[in-house]
Amino acid sequence: MRIGEIAALVGVTPRAVRHYHRLGLLPEPGRRANGYREYGIRDAVLLARIRRLAELGLGLDEVGDVLAGDEGRELVDVLEELDADLARQERVVRERRARLAELLAQARAGRLPADGPVSPELAEWLTELGELGHPGVAAGSPTAAWDREMLTLLDTMVPEAERARMVELLRATAGDAAAALYARLDALADAAPDDPRVAETAEALAGIIPAGMAVEVPGDGFADVLFADLAPAQTAAVRQALRLAAERAA
């Protein structure tokens, strides 16, 4: 048989056969006087085995291990490993579908934020705040929009086991005081960093920051990204508030 014939017989492409030759999975057969490869039944049997192993999900390096194994013991090991890997993939798929079901439920109920998706814990709290298009404490506030974006980023960074605690800490900051602070921060958009209102706003903001969230932001590249959308006076107020809250928590 020539390469096209053995490929058609086994159900692969001539290109695949040449690839298996290059990888050493399929030995080169003898050649005719005209230089064409001449395949026999043993070549077809081996090629069929390579195809079956590949269809099981084995990588070609694993197929090579199986073909080099002794009395099938290597095949058992590889198949057991493949079975365990597929079981892991099934768990991941189930978890992703469960998460997708939560997001679909949020979307159908009109509770999925435009800058989401976010965790169910944060989505629930944002809904309570009225941040998803319902009348709320921060409707129309540019500073509130920035705060929501930061929360969305934080929601991604916080480990799943800590999200519930994070939301509980955030709930402690909600209410009329938070709404008033958004308004005060918005009013600093055109102010200078040494405006007296900066210190007053920082003091008020520090007063509602829970001890568990009192962390001073370092002056590095992350800070540049964090405060990129805030005016200088707003940045100064938030920095001072975090510093005050961290000092009090310590």
From TrEMBL:
The lineage of its organism: Bacteria, Bacillati, Actinomycetota, Actinomycetes, Kitasatosporales. GO terms for molecular function: DNA binding; DNA-binding transcription factor activity. The keyword DNA damage does not apply. InterPro entries: DNA-bd_dom_put_sf, MerR-type_HTH_dom, MerR_fam. This is MerR-family transcriptional regulator. It comes from the Bacteria. Residues 79-106 form a coiled coil. Pfam families: MerR (PF00376). Keywords: Coiled coil, DNA-binding. Residues 1-69 form the HTH merR-type domain.
